[in-house]
Design goal:
The protein is mainly β and 326 residues long. It has two helices and 22 strands. It has one domain: 5 Propeller (Tachylectin-2, Chain A). Helices cover 5% and strands 46% of the residues. It binds beta-D-mannopyranose.
Length: 326
């Protein structure tokens, strides 16, 4: 066991957080949170925000900023709304988008939770311009969430990370493959929830899409600690093999980012820092990490790719068979 002796200053919160709230929204909304993020060709940061309306159903609305931090320009109307007439699985809304650019297709893959009568599943939409979307419908049936693509094919197949769950059972992170984006198979567990008192016992899920580094795919994932007064959603780190990301090389024991500030502790669901998007800045190292605070607002923190990789290499444990975790 390695205790780092610090609550690690790996992530630095923007001092004027939160950056987006329902109060500043151009139309009535209950909450704005869990945003997918990308940088467009001209460098603009686009956040695809989950907006929960006053019925409790969510849709997506875009906010854009030149520097990814402030002066957000929010679309006057939603960008993607549930269409239950064509996609019955969206009957109770769409949530938590993750965005990955697929170079081969010159399209962004937006994976999101579609809340169907049978529970939440993973749906996929493709877009080149965040105006027109090609909706491929539900690609992973319920219960499944927290999905994002790899940016290119692996050994000829598209690959997606996701988190199936069975109520009452532990929920782990899986990987699946597809020849055509529609048919998915070869499902494998790649990271398991720990058990007992661990911060990531019982339920884990991908946070933002994977970050490619020379040392491997850096994964930020969330762990859920159930307590007598609710669940705490925190983030930890793992490093996956570059060639074969089914192989987890290293996994941190301690969480590195969790709810501490008022806007993370108090909201519709207090104690939640839920990270869903990142952008890489021009220096090739600085990450802007976008996360939902207490299921109420969008906040941003910065981190260094080098810093995160150094931390996991120093403090991460080889993933293979560590009995004390389970
Ligand atoms: C998860 C997701 C997130 C949410 C989090 C905390 O299961 O549904 O949308 O932010 O719970 O409530």
């Amino acid at each position: 066991m390695t205790i780092t002796g610090q609550k690690v200053a790996l992530f630095t919160r923007y001092q004027a957080n939160p950056i987006l709230t329902a109060k500043g929204w151009p139309y009535p909304a209950n909450s704005v949170f869990n945003a997918g993020a990308t940088r467009l060709e001209d460098g603009t940061t686009l956040l695809l925000c989950r907006v929960e309306d006053l019925r409790g159903h969510s849709h997506f609305c875009a906010a854009r900023s030149d520097n990814g931090i402030d002066n957000w320009r929010i679309d006057a109307a939603p960008m993607l709304v549930p269409e239950p007439a064509r996609y019955p699985e969206e009957i109770w809304g769409i949530e938590d988008p993750r965005i990955v650019f697929l170079e081969e297709l010159e399209r962004y893959a937006v994976t999101y939770t579609a809340w169907s009568r049978g529970g939440p599943g993973v749906s996929l939409a493709l877009t080149a311009d965040f105006r027109d979307f090609e909706r491929l419908g539900m690609v992973m049936p319920p219960h499944d969430k927290d999905a994002a693509f790899f940016p290119r094919r692996l050994n000829g197949r598209w690959a997606m990370i996701h988190r199936p769950s069975t109520p009452g059972e532990d929920s782990h992170i899986w990987m699946s493959y597809s020849p055509d984006l529609k048919h998915w198979g070869q499902h494998r567990i790649i990271l398991m929830a720990r058990r007992g008192a661990w911060w990531d016992a019982g339920k884990i899920g991908l946070s933002c899409p994977l970050i490619e580094t020379p040392e491997g795919w850096l994964m930020i994932y969330h762990g859920v600690k159930r307590t007598m007064s609710g669940s705490l959603y925190r983030q930890g780190l793992a490093l996956l093999d570059l060639e074969n990301p089914e192989r987890c090389l290293l996994r941190g024991e301690q969480w590195v980012f969790g709810p501490e500030e008022h806007y993370e502790l108090v909201g519709d669901v207090g104690g939640v820092a839920f990270l869903t998007g990142y952008t890489l800045q021009d220096d090739g190292d600085t990450l802007y990490l976008y996360y939902g605070g207490a299921d109420k607002c969008v906040a941003v923190a910065t981190a260094s790719v080098r810093g995160l990789v150094d931390w996991i290499r120093r403090y991460g444990e080889p993933h293979a068979a560590i009995d004390s975790w389970f």
